[in-house]
Amino acid sequence: MIELVNFVLLGLLAVTALAAIRLHDLFAVTMMFGIYSLLAAVVFVVLDAVDVAFTEAAVGVGISTILMLATIGLVGRQERRPSHRPLLPLAVVIVTGAALVYGTLDMPGFGDPDAPVQRHVAPRYLEQSPEEIGIPNVVTVVLASYRGYDTLGELTVIFTAGVGILALLGLRRRRPSTQPTEQEKT
Amino acid sequence: MRDNPVLRVVTKIAIPLILLFALYVQFHGDYGPGGGFQAGVIFAAAFILYALVFGTRAARTVVPPAVLRTVTALGLILFAGVGTVSQLLGSQFLDYDALADNPLHGQHIGIFLVELGVGITVAAVMITLFLAFAGRQDEP
């Protein structure tokens, strides 16, 4: 049963990705990206990574779709004809993809209890966190307490992104008059 | 879009529900899936919906840019502040054991505040991103 679910989900992911490549209407491409993120979120749920699925659904489906739509509103919804043949990029992508697939052959099986990732700090977090922290959701415990320093770094990255956007684009100040001045129009 | 009564009414009903759900995700993250990142994004989604329907000009009256800038920094300051306070109280940076007389309570308080800081900054940055992009279009 789970194989069938995985098969359908991964098949739909591939179909959505191909559709996003083939389409030239950027609005439709953005919708395809949204569907792709939603499918990816479902895959994460199947893999029991609910917190990641939640983030993917909120950020990938919601915010990034909206941001891409806002950008399309600025740049127009038709893709421009490419000025060069896509053969070299295609070759690079195929070689990189083949290398990645080759790399996965050496990876331990999914959920393998002897995999290095299960034998490092994960057992300690799972066994000690009830006594040390006492919060049921281990993901939150690892994120906010054991790996708090990493999360502080992540938050700094988001903060820096916000500051960068403010510095590059800025939020146009509201003028007291409702009529936009000449400077605002440009 | 603000001339469409259906959109306007549905938006006004949906926004409080979205905000409430964001707060649930924020404060229930200790027990179920969720946490500051997700809650911040959902919280921002409510403001983005408001901006989509009523226009970015109206949204900028609800959250003025100066407030947005201050709040963006506040979340990060809260996160780093919790770390510093725990350091001043005698344990290590971001080790919340010393925040209360009982290490378990300390961890609870620390994680709660840290997640709140994450949520505040993420929400503010997401709203900033949207207003910065969408606000560049000329509005009628």
Protein described:
The complex is a heterodimer of chains A (186) and B (140). By secondary structure, chain A is mostly helical. Chain A has two domains: 1-79, NADH-ubiquinone/plastoquinone oxidoreductase chain 6, subunit NuoJ (Four Helix Bundle (Hemerythrin (Met), subunit A), Up-down Bundle); 113-175, no CATH class. Helices cover 73% and strands 0% of the residues of chain A. Chain A is built from nine helices and no strands. In chain A, α1 (2-22) packs antiparallel against α2 (26-46), α2 runs antiparallel to α3 and α7 packs across α8. The longest helix of chain A is centred in the middle third of the chain and has 26 residues, at 50-75. The radius of gyration of chain A is 22 Å and the shape is globular. With 140 residues, chain B is mainly α. Chain B has one domain (5-134). Chain B has helices at 5-27, 36-54, 56-62, 65-88, 103-134.
Name the features:
A: 186 residues, mainly alpha, Four Helix Bundle (Hemerythrin (Met), subunit A), 0% strand, B: mainly alpha, 5 helices
Ordered list of secondary-structure elements with their pairings:
The complex is a heterodimer of chains A (186) and B (140).
Chain A: H1 2-22, H2 26-46, H3 50-75, H4 87-104, H5 116-119, H6 122-132, H7 138-146, H8 148-168, H9 182-185
Chain B: H1 5-27, H2 36-54, H3 56-62, H4 65-88, H5 103-134
Helix pairs in contact in B: 1-2, 2-3, 2-5, 4-5
Strand content of chain A: under 5%
Which class of secondary structure composition applies to the elements of chain B? mainly alpha
CATH architecture of the largest domain in chain A: Up-down Bundle
CATH topology of the largest domain in chain A: Four Helix Bundle (Hemerythrin (Met), subunit A)
Principal-axis shape of chain A equals globular
Number of helices of chain A: 9
Largest interface (CB < 8 Å): A-B, 48 and 59 residues
Structural class of chain A: mainly alpha
Computed over alpha carbons, the radius of gyration of chain A is 22 Å
| Domain module tally of chain A | 2
Overall average pLDDT of chain A:
86
How much beta of chain B, percentage-wise?
A: under 5%
N/C terminus separation of chain A = 59 Å
SS elements, strand count of chain A? 0
Query: Which range best describes the helical content of chain B: under 10%, 10-25%, 25-40%, 40-55%, 55-70% or over 70%?
Result: over 70%
